[in-house]
Amino acid sequence: LADALKSELGGLFESLIVALMTPPVSYDASKLHKALKGAGTDDEVLIEILASRTGEQIKDIIKVYKKEFGGKLEKDICGDTSGHYQKLLVILLQGNREEGVDEEKTEKDAKDLYAAGEGKFGTDEEKFITILGNRSAEHLRKVFDAYKKLSGSDIEDSIEGETTGNLENLLVAVVKCARSVPQFFAEGLYKSMRRAGTDDDTLMRIMVSRSEVDMLDIRASFKKMYGVSLYSTIQVTQSSSVFCLFHFDKC
């Protein structure tokens, strides 16, 4: 069916239809493969997928990646990345975040993060990677609250002041996903459409990958964050053939 449709369609509409027909895990695996094997590394895709997927989803992606592309995802990522950025990506690839909230650790984690960044000259990246890469989302939200009380600023501000480049972007993405995955994707959609010319790859990737997961929550977050509906924002940036696939009639 997909091959038949490809012969009848073209352009963005063809890409969107084929993407919607692809199983979610296979879609993620294909996007990661393209990000690693294309011309240069698409770090935005690596960060988006590995920061936002659950541990079980990541483990499934690894299996499908090996089956469909004949290689190990971790090996391919290590071949294209380096340093602390690579280390955090590999930790996320394990899909083994701790479960629940350890009340005894929340204050200590907040103090450790402060001491690793704002509280010292230089930055202890290892401490940020260990805590943000291994603790559960519920636990991290408690840590972020404790950090705000301790330092007077959000953890994102500390990360942006203490790190740079891909490591900064990945750490911030992990924090945002721990706070709210729908808000993370609402921001991604907004940025994809506010640039000079729509970033169709990002727009399509988020819409397709979240369409049967949390799109209603993303829609609500988008309206709350930006004061306009996702429906109307897409409407003014996309052709009717692409836009009509997404039924946001109650947006």
From TrEMBL:
An example Gene Ontology molecular-function term: phosphatidylserine binding
GO cellular component: cytoplasm; nucleus; plasma membrane; vesicle membrane
Domain notes: A pair of annexin repeats may form one binding site for calcium and phospholipid.
PANTHER family: ANNEXIN
Alphabetical list of SMART domains matching this protein: ANX
Pfam families hit by this protein: Annexin
Species per Swiss-Prot/TrEMBL record: Amphiprion ocellaris
Family: Belongs to the annexin family.
Keyword match Cytoplasm: no
Example of a GO biological process term: negative regulation of coagulation
Keywords: Annexin, Calcium, Calcium/phospholipid-binding, Repeat
UniProt protein name: Annexin
PROSITE patterns attached to this UniProt entry: ANNEXIN_1, ANNEXIN_2
